[in-house]
C-alpha cells in the first residue's frame, strides 16, 4: 500500500491512515483492481461496460445483448475472470441474458447487477467483499427497505440459479455491503454514470470537511489530498454532497447508518465559513478567482441569521420546483428565482439550490433569442458560476469541479469568439442594459475572448497532474489548445489590457507557458487578462439575473 494503510479507530472502526505526509494536490494512491466498475443500468447502451467510455462506437455483447463494448480489447478484458483482473463477464453473461429474456428486454437494476457480478465470480469476489462493513442491522430496522433488499437478492439468485434455503439472507447482507461501500461516479461533461467498488478504498471514513477526494476514471480511482495530511493521520473522504444543508446531509447519510460529527455538522457551518478557513487558499494565485475573494467573500451578513432558519426549506421548495420543470422557459425561471431570491439578496451564490438554478438559466439563454444580445448571455452566467459559485464549495484550483467549470467557460468563450457575431457590441449593450459601472465596462471592452480561451485552457493543463491522465477535462482542454493554434489564433490577437508590461498580447500569450514555468512576473498579466474580466462578467451575470427574472 505504500502511502496508506488500513487501521482501526475506537469510534469509527476500520479506517485508512496515511503512512507519510501529504500536501494538497498530492496523489495518495491509485486503485486499479476494483471488485466491479460497471455503468449504471440506464447507461448500458451508451457506455462501454469495461472501460466505461461513451465517446465511441459501441457494439452489443452477442451473448446477453445487455452490455456493450467499444472494441475487442475491452470485450476480452471484460470476459476474463475477476481473479485475473478482468470483469468476469464470462460468468455474468448467461445471467444477464436470462434476466433480459424474462424481463421483456429490461435490464436488472444497478445494485442487482453488481450483486450478480460478485455472486457468479465465486470465492475470489466474495472473499474481497466479505471484510467490508455492511450496516446490516441498520438496514434491517427499516422493514420495507429490508424486504426490498431481500427481493433484489432473491432476483439475483433466481437468475443465477444458485440454490440453497439460506442464500437469500446471505446475499441480502452482501447487497448491504455493496450499497454501503460502492462509489457512485457521475461525469456531467459526457453524461457518464457508473458504480465502483474497491475494498481498500472503501475503508476510508466520511467527513463533510474531507482531507481527501476520490476521482474515478473507468476502472481506476485516484485518492488525492485536499488538505495537508500528516503521517499516521486518518484519511477522510465525503460520501455525499457536503455543500447541502445540515438537514439534507443527514438525510443523505441515513443509508450509512451513522451521524456525522465533523466540525461542519457540529457547528452547522455554511460553505463560506468553511471556505474562508481553508488552509491552502493561497494556491488560488493561478486560478479564475483571487485568494482574497475567497477569504473575504462579498456576502451580506445582515441576512443569513434569519436565512439559516429557511435555508433547508429553500432546498425543499426548489426540489419540488425542479420536478415540475417541463423544459427551460422564462416563466419557469421566474418561478425558480422567487424561491432563491433570499440567497440572491444576500449574495450567497454558492449555497444550494443556487447552482442548480444558475445551470437552468445557462441552458435557457443558450437558445433564447428574445433580444439580440441574448446570444452572449451564457458567457457572463458562466463567469458567475466560475467565480462566485464553484470556488466557495471547491476551494482548491485543481479540484475536479473547478477544472470542469473552467472547461465549460473555455467552451463558452470559444463559442463567443467564433459563433457570435458582433461580440463586443452585444457585450457592451448588455453592460448598458444592466447598468454596469464604467470601470468594469471598460475591463470587458478591453478583453479578448480568444486569448482568454487559450489562457484558461492552459491553466487547466497546468493542473493536469492532479487529475487522472484519461480525464475528459484534460482531453478537451488539449483539443481546445490544438484548435487555437491550428486556427492561427496567435496572429489575430490585439494589444494587451492596460497596465500589462508587454509589447503586445500576441507575444505575451505566445510566451505564457514558458514565462510561467520560468517563474517570471506574470501576476499582472493573468489578473488583467483573465481574473478581472471574469469578475466583471460575473457582475453582469448577477445583475442580469435580478433584472430579467426579478420583475
Automatic annotation (TrEMBL):
Keywords: Metal-binding, Methyltransferase, Transferase, Zinc, Zinc-finger. It comes from the Eukaryota. Pfam families: SET (PF00856), zf-MYND (PF01753). PROSITE patterns: SET (PS50280), ZF_MYND_2 (PS50865). One of its GO terms (molecular function) is zinc ion binding. GO terms for biological process: methylation. GO terms for cellular component: nucleus. The keyword Hydrolase does not apply. Residues 4-240 form the SET domain. Residues 48-93 form the MYND-type domain. PANTHER family: EG:BACR7C10.4 PROTEIN (PTHR12197:SF251), HISTONE-LYSINE N-METHYLTRANSFERASE SMYD (PTHR12197). This is Histone-lysine N-methyltransferase SMYD3. The lineage of its organism: Eukaryota, Fungi, Dikarya, Ascomycota, Pezizomycotina.
Amino acid at each position: 500500500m505504500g502511502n496508506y494503510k488500513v487501521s482501526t479507530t475506537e469510534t469509527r472502526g476500520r479506517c485508512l491512515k496515511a503512512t507519510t505526509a501529504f500536501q494538497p494536490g498530492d496523489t495518495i494512491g491509485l486503485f486499479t483492481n476494483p471488485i466491479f466498475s460497471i455503468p449504471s443500468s440506464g447507461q448500458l447502451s451508451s457506455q462501454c461496460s469495461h472501460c466505461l467510455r461513451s465517446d465511441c462506437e459501441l457494439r452489443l455483447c452477442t451473448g446477453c445483448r445487455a452490455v456493450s463494448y467499444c472494441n475487442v480489447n475491452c470485450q476480452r478484458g471484460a470476459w476474463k475472470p475477476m481473479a485475473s483482473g478482468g470483469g468476469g463477464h464470462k460468468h455474468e453473461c448467461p445471467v444477464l441474458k436470462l434476466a433480459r429474456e424474462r424481463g421483456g428486454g429490461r435490464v436488472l437494476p444497478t445494485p442487482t447487477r453488481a450483486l450478480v457480478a460478485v455472486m457468479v465470480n465465486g470465492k475470489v469476489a466474495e472473499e474481497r467483499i466479505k471484510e467490508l462493513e455492511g450496516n446490516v442491522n441498520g438496514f434491517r430496522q427499516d422493514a420495507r427497505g429490508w424486504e426490498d433488499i431481500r427481493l433484489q437478492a432473491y432476483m439475483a439468485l433466481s437468475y443465477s440459479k444458485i440454490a440453497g434455503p439460506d442464500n437469500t439472507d446471505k446475499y441480502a447482507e452482501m447487497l448491504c455491503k455493496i450499497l454501503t461501500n460502492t462509489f457512485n461516479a457521475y461525469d456531467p461533461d459526457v453524461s457518464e454514470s457508473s458504480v465502483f467498488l474497491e475494498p481498500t478504498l472503501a475503508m476510508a471514513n466520511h467527513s463533510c470537511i474531507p482531507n481527501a477526494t476520490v476521482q474515478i476514471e473507468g476502472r481506476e480511482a485516484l485518492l488525492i489530498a485536499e488538505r495537508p495530511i500528516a503521517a499516521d493521520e486518518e484519511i477522510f473522504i465525503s460520501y455525499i454532497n457536503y455543500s447541502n444543508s445540515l438537514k439534507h446531509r443527514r438525510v443523505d447519510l441515513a443509508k450509512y447508518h451513522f451521524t456525522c460529527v465533523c466540525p461542519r455538522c457540529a457547528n452547522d457551518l455554511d460553505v463560506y465559513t468553511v471556505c474562508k478557513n481553508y488552509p491552502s487558499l493561497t494556491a488560488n494565485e493561478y486560478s479564475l478567482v483571487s485568494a482574497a475573494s475567497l477569504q473575504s467573500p462579498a456576502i451580506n451578513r445582515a441576512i443569513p441569521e434569519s436565512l439559516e432558519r429557511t435555508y433547508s426549506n429553500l432546498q425543499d421548495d426548489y426540489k419540488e420546483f425542479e420536478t415540475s420543470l417541463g423544459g427551460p422557459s422564462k416563466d419557469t425561471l421566474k418561478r425558480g428565482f422567487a424561491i432563491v431570491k433570499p440567497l440572491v439578496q444576500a449574495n450567497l451564490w454558492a449555497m444550494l439550490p443556487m447552482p442548480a438554478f444558475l445551470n437552468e438559466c445557462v441552458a435557457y439563454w443558450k437558445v433564447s433569442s428574445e433580444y439580440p444580445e441574448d446570444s452572449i448571455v451564457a458567457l457572463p452566467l458562466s463567469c458567475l458560476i466560475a467565480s462566485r459559485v464553484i470556488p466557495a464549495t471547491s476551494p482548491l484550483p485543481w479540484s475536479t469541479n473547478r477544472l470542469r467549470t473552467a472547461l465549460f467557460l473555455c467552451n463558452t468563450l470559444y463559442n463567443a469568439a467564433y459563433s457570435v457575431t458582433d461580440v463586443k457590441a452585444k457585450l457592451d449593450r448588455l453592460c448598458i442594459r444592466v447598468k454596469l459601472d464604467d470601470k468594469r465596462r471598460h475591463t470587458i471592452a478591453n478583453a479578448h475572448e480568444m486569448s482568454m480561451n487559450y489562457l484558461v485552457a492552459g491553466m487547466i493543463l497546468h493542473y493536469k497532474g492532479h487529475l487522472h491522465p484519461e480525464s475528459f477535462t484534460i482531453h478537451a482542454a488539449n483539443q481546445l489548445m490544438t484548435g487555437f493554434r491550428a486556427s492561427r489564433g496567435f496572429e489575430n490577437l490585439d494589444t494587451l489590457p492596460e497596465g500589462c508590461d508587454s509589447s503586445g498580447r500576441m507575444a505575451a500569450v505566445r510566451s505564457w507557458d514558458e514565462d510561467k514555468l520560468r517563474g517570471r512576473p506574470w501576476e499582472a498579466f493573468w489578473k488583467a487578462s483573465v481574473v478581472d474580466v471574469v469578475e466583471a462578467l460575473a457582475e453582469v451575470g448577477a445583475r442580469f439575473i435580478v433584472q430579467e427574472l426579478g420583475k
